Amino acid sequence: MSRLKRWFRDLALLAIMTLALVTVMDKWRAPQAPAAFASQPLPTLYGETVTLDALSQQRPLLLYFWASWCGICRYTTPGVAALAQDGGNVVSIALRSGDDSRVNNYLRAKHYALPTINDPQGRLAAQWQVGVTPTYVILYQGKVVSTTTGWTSRWGLKLRLWWAQR
């Protein structure tokens, strides 16, 4: 039995160390919301103009910074797109992925129905101080509730959105 106890203890220690490392990395790489970001009008690829304040008033909003050239984004974007398709409150920002036509073609080829703001020169990402793709920002009632970077699952995003309302 002592071997089994040791194995569980080592597994618990590994989990705690991993959680601590992820937390430190998220704090270190966290984007910084620019002044008056919530009311800034942002044009989507579909011709609408949105504000993050309006989109996040009734329920939490996932702001997803990604790029077509990002290796990790190839694994995370399908989950984000599925979340949006299931009625999740999502807006994505395509970083340095080409002009509107190129981003539209990319989304269409991958079958992603995702409200998207194109950021071809990375100006919006620079305002937010996004240094890593993918980056996720959860907003609720115009305020940043949480941020994370790197890989996360669709269920992890759902949990973060649910938690933002608490």
From TrEMBL:
Give a Pfam family name.
Answer: AhpC-TSA
Thioredoxin domain location: 31-166
The record's annotation in InterPro entries points to:
AhpC/TSA, Thioredoxin-like_sf, Thioredoxin_domain, Thioredoxin_ResA/DsbE_sf
An MF annotation (GO) of this entry: antioxidant activity
Would you say which domain of life the source belongs to? Bacteria
By what name is this protein known? Protein disulfide oxidoreductase
What lineage is on file? Bacteria, Pseudomonadati, Pseudomonadota, Gammaproteobacteria, Enterobacterales
